[in-house]
Amino acid sequence: MLQIEDFSLYVMFCVLAPLVGAFTLLFLFIFEKRIDLLENQANKLVLEKELQQAKYFQLNQQIQPHFFFNTLNSILSLARLNRMGELIRAIEVFSKFLKVKYKSNQSICTVAEELEYSSYYLEIQKIRFQSRLTYTIAMEEQVKQVAILPFLIQTLVENAFKHSFEEYPGKAQLTITLTLSNSHVLLTVWNSSEGVRLNNYQDAPGHGLTNIKTRLQHMYTEEASFQLIHEHGGTRAVVSWPVSYPTNLKKEAKQNEHYISR
């Protein structure tokens, strides 16, 4: 015969079991919604990162046609002047540049590699300007393997020619300096012409200098800086960014790629 105590427990169980089940289902529902929210946030962060990377690669590609156009103009000017020996040498140097550039499609490179690109451009311009052009490159040894944005130096050098040396007569002097300062790389590109006023066009859409500022922001956010300083006798471009190395950046990129694949 069923005792009163057992009957009471049975009734309590019948009453509480649905409540416990309902609370359990509610907890699971809330937990599942929370998991979905976290997954959505993680996917959003991944998509935003991919979008930033896509924008960065697009900006990298924008530099190349601008450089090619100006280099071909330099070579064309040699042909018009019938300076055949210098023309052949310029084409040889340009082909070396293309060979180096298209060995890999890099989003980042070393300072040494970037200077190699720029030296080909400078050699072509030296053939064109002859004794009028003098340039110097001063670099601390420990800077050579530091990471730098592709075409950063190249773009600043190119602007000195396009908006200074090609527009104003007289000596064309260019100085490139690279040093380390407080865990940052400090790049200075100085040109001798007072006539150039880069602030008049630096914000033009798609222009090389705007491109530099945008790429620095994408890669280093607020840790990088870019200034144009007009002074007596010339214009100075100063760029600063945190010290890093391509191997570390490649490792980080692989980790991000693995996370995305998951």
Describe this structure in words.
The chain has helices at 4-80, 84-101, 111-129, 152-165, 208-220, 246-261, and strands at residues 109-110, 133-139, 147-148, 172-181, 184-191, 225-231, 234-242. It has 262 residues and is α+β, with helices and mostly antiparallel strands. The protein has a single domain (61-252), classed as Heat Shock Protein 90 (2-Layer Sandwich). A hairpin with a 2-residue loop joins β4 and β5 (184-191). The chain is elongated.
What separation lies between the terminal Cα atoms? 61 Å
Find the count of extended strands (DSSP E, 2+ residues): 7
Major sheet size, sense and barrel closure? 5 strands, mixed
Tell me the CATH topology.
Answer: Heat Shock Protein 90
Main sheet: strand order: 2-4-5-7-6
CATH class: Alpha Beta
What CATH architecture do you see? 2-Layer Sandwich
Q: Indicate the mean pLDDT.
A: 76
User: What's the name of the CATH homologous superfamily?
Assistant: Histidine kinase-like ATPase, C-terminal domain
DSSP strand content: 15-25%
The number of domains:
1
Residue ranges: pLDDT <50 for 5 or more in a row? Answer: 196-206, 250-262
**Alpha-carbon Rg, integer:** 30 Å
What are the key terms here?
262 residues; 5-stranded mixed β-sheet; two-stranded antiparallel ribbon; 6 helices; 17% strand; disordered C terminus
